[in-house]
Amino acid sequence: MSMTIESLKKHPQQINKVKELYLDSFPQNERIPMNLLLWKAKKDFVDFLVIYDEDVFVGFTYLMTCNDLTYVLYLAIDNNIRSKGYGSRTLTLLKEKYPNNRIILNIEVVDEIADNYEQRLTRRKFYIRNGYKGSTLLYQDRWGLYEVLIYRGQVDKEEFYDLLKRFAGPLLFSIFKPQINLSKELEVTK
Prior knowledge:
Layout: E1 3-7, H1 15-25, H2 34-40, E2 46-53, E3 56-66, E4 69-77, H3 86-97, E5 102-108, H4 117-129, E6 133-140, E7 145-151, H5 157-176, E8 179-182
Parallel strand pairs: 4-5
Antiparallel strand pairs: 1-2, 2-3, 3-4, 5-7, 6-7, 6-8
């Protein structure tokens, strides 16, 4: 496995694969319009990256950074090659790409009454195995409640708000209205 992550700008031929994987991997309510993602990716604090194993397209990730905080907004591995270590290796590559940054991401809160409880639990265990831990923050938008996981250090809600405002801009941020709340640290499932 010789994996690399590179800017989508260098690989525009992959845009259709990225779009298809994006639509397959995320529910409609969690998807920002692709045109907006592409437009925002022109900013110097946004990285829209494609993941390769040699010359084989593996997936993509979409990140934004503010100071030493990097937020993984999206990470998707091609359905045909999941469970082969690509997700863990991608997280390692991100840690290497941002060696001095705290890295955060959101996952659906593990809720025993959720229809996809097992999937949520499996996803959380995956990130915990890969060095992430609960941050004591919960992120809520109009569509769901998410636990904020972090690799390296801690994050406070003001830092997360600043990052989101930087990405969205004042108008979009006021329309989107995300809420970031403190919670007691969620128990790490082993």
